[in-house]
Amino acid sequence: MLGIQKKLSKSFLALLSLPATAVGFALSTQIAALSWLLSTRFGLDIHDVAVVWLAGPMAGIVGQPIVGAISDNAWFLGGRRKGFIMIGGILGALMFLTLPQIGIISSSLGFEGVIVVATVVALLLDLSINITFNPARSIIADLTPEGKKRTSGFTIMQLISGIFGLLAYFISIVLGNITLIYIAVVLVLLFSVVPCFFIKEDRNMSADDLSEEDKAEKTSVIQIFKIIYPLSGFLLFAFYLILDKLILHGKWEAYQVNMMYLSVAITIILGIIIVFKGMKKQTNENEFHKIMVAHSFSWLGIQSMFVMSFFFAKEIIVPNLIDNDAFANSFTTFFTGKTPSIDDTAGNILSLAFLLFNAVGAFFPVLVLEPISKKIGRVRTYFTSILIMAIAYLFIWKFGNTELTFYTGICIAGIGWSAVISIVFAIMSERVNQSKMGLYMGLFNYSVVLPQMMTVGIAALVKESNDYSMLYLMCGISLFVSFLFWLFVKEPKSSSNSHVPSGGGH
């Protein structure tokens, strides 16, 4: 074991963050390049693009809990998590190599369009990300104690991941999305594989670290459903979507928006029941359920933004430009001397916006959120950030038709994003069985992937309205619902009584 690991120093926490950074860079590359690639190179509309993006949550529904549960008990390549991290990184690098070639692959296979091959490639890419996603975060929780040190681990992870996320969007603006994809091949491979040779995992978790309830807990299909039942509404929409797309070939597509409303209503009702149940008796299970419901509405809004903001930029912002003169194009023109097309302009606006979004997400946790959370608690810090994000989305809905106002709103929304990808994991990880961290990380990810599937419903609603600003109204409402549920989440005890070891930390 390295000395930096024994001391839990900042350098070790940084090393521990690199696999999660690989996942973050892969996701940033997807966000910057996938919608742009499918729309501009292959002519897919907003709804078809949303369908391709379904590959991610479909992979997550199956992959993450399975990988998480297996990694809790398996031991290969020197650890419970490291083997999955390396396998996922290698597979992800291979899929990024394939992504620009989907047109050639489609033609060679005799398909008239690219949507089938695009979906398969996106599915395999997302499967690789899902293989790495949970172990990369679980290993941080495994090797740090509960409380402030674990919060520091996730915060440093977000800082490093956020910086590389910024790099991804900067590369997208300056060198283009195709170059970004090939850089992702190298970086994802290195950051997933190399750190695993310097990290030592504990083969056996001490039973003394577990509560009697955790020791007695058994894993079964029924138990798993009991854990995720608060998301039954989102599950209903997922089953409907799979049935419609894979079996009925779109015959029930006309019911998408109504099914979305029904699924959201069911989830809200279940969330209210869980809140009232927690008022009578507070348990870790109840707190975990409240966090799942609240987090699901955060991701419904956030993923809708990621998938459809390219179309918002193209249809709402670009028409207001004079002679296609966007500030975002100045970087491309300066470094390449080329004048971007309208489609490339929309892509540049989106990449610059998400660069700013991730800049706030990278630095805000360390500079602002962590010091505030030490004073008022992580939960209060978190739901305040979510409220700010909701307000930012509503600002973009009303005033985001220019570059300046769009970037302003996105920067403010970045405050919420910084909390979503840092604090929430530390809060959640203290409400679950520590010996089954991988399984719970995977099941918790249902509160991410199931709402992601519902973005197809949001896309249908936006397309029907013929008003692309409607996207940010839906995002704002979703984040506000999340904020309301977070108001009822209790602060973990370790937040107030944990000691920060002298070996490092903030």
Q: The CATH topology, please?
A: Growth Hormone, Chain: A
Question: Describe the biggest sheet?
Answer: none
Q: What is the general shape?
A: globular
Number of helices: 24
Topology pattern, helix = H, strand = E: HHHHHHHHHHHHHHHHHHHHHHHH
Features:
506 residues; mainly alpha; Growth Hormone, Chain: A; globular
In short:
The chain is mostly helical and 506 residues long. It contains 24 helices and no strands.
What's the structural blueprint in terms of helices and strands?
Blueprint lengths: L2 H5 L2 H32 L4 H8 L1 H19 L8 H17 L3 H8 L5 H28 L5 H28 L1 H17 L18 H5 L4 H8 L3 H16 L8 H25 L3 H34 L11 H8 L5 H35 L1 H22 L3 H18 L2 H7 L7 H8 L1 H8 L1 H11 L4 H17 L7 H4 L9
Explain what the structure shows.
- The chain has a single domain, classed as Growth Hormone, Chain: A, CATH 1.20.1250.20.
- By secondary structure, the chain is an all-alpha fold.
- The protein has 24 helices and no strands.
- The two termini are 23 Å apart.
